[in-house]
Amino acid sequence: MTLKQLRALVAVSECAGVTAAADKLRLTAPAVSMQLKSLETLLGVELFDRPAWAPNAFGRELIAAARRVDWELQGACARIAALQSGKAGRVVFGVTSTGKYFTPGLMARVNSAMPELDLSLVVGNREAIMAGLAEGRIDFAICGRPPRVPIVDAAVLGDHPHVWITPPSHPLARLKTIVPAQLMDEVFLIREPGSGTRMLMERLLARAGDTLPARTIEFDSNETIKQAVIAGLGIAFLSAHTITAELDARRLTVLPVAGTPVVRQWFLIRPVDRPPSGALARVIEFVVGLNGAFLPAYPRE
Prior knowledge:
By secondary structure, the chain is an alpha/beta fold. The chain has 3 domains: 3-83, Orthogonal Bundle (Arc Repressor Mutant, subunit A), CATH 1.10.10.10; 90-158 and 265-289, D-Maltodextrin-Binding Protein, domain 2 (3-Layer(aba) Sandwich); 161-263, Periplasmic binding protein-like II (D-Maltodextrin-Binding Protein, domain 2, 3-Layer(aba) Sandwich). It has 10 helices and 11 strands. Strands 3, 4, 5, 6, 7, 8, 9, 10 and 11 form a 9-stranded mixed beta sheet that branches. The chain has a two-stranded antiparallel sheet with strand order 1-2. The protein is rod-shaped and about 100 Å long. The N and C termini lie far apart (71 Å).
């Protein structure tokens, strides 16, 4: 059974005859007759009472089904056109765990501008997000440093400052200036291997001629590290964008360590081997066009 056969059936019914149906379909009358005959042969029944060309019970049943098929196809074509134009579709954001503090606000902006899109957010450490990007589970990612693999297009979104933090009652918090060597007697609260924050801290210490101190405690989330610092367990090196609420509440303070804040960049990245859908292209253009307006202010006022 073909669409041509179904359209010939509906046209003969609507036009009450083969000749008029052929004119409507811009076909010859023999061609329409052949389509109709093939359909009746396939089903093993006649579909019209001839010569009036009134559909019988079999014909009426199939005509109703043919109209439903045509309606669904028209809807599918409209949805495909919407997907191509970016007016519909699903977009999956990926963000390293440091970015989860501002990404919900960014998604709210995108949703307000493009409510017709289906948005989803995946949060993980750097290794997990890059794997999701490479495997196609994530459409684009916001991260602190573009990877070598997969090969990506990268757009700068804004500054990404990193700082050393303690509770306000810590003795180091009373100092006007601090050199990295003065931190070495402290317990370092650090992220797990594979974390971008940890890699940046290790490079910073290496440039200062130091390595990780003898006492470190490893955590798999910035949130737990913040609570541990507030409790007095140790000091930490974190993105300033993860501690805005605690700074405003004076539960944490930033140490004046020489060479800080370490300012990197936030990037929006997507694999170059996957052309963006219409929806994804719209979202990327919108996010890049915000020029980092969604990022938390630092230093805090």
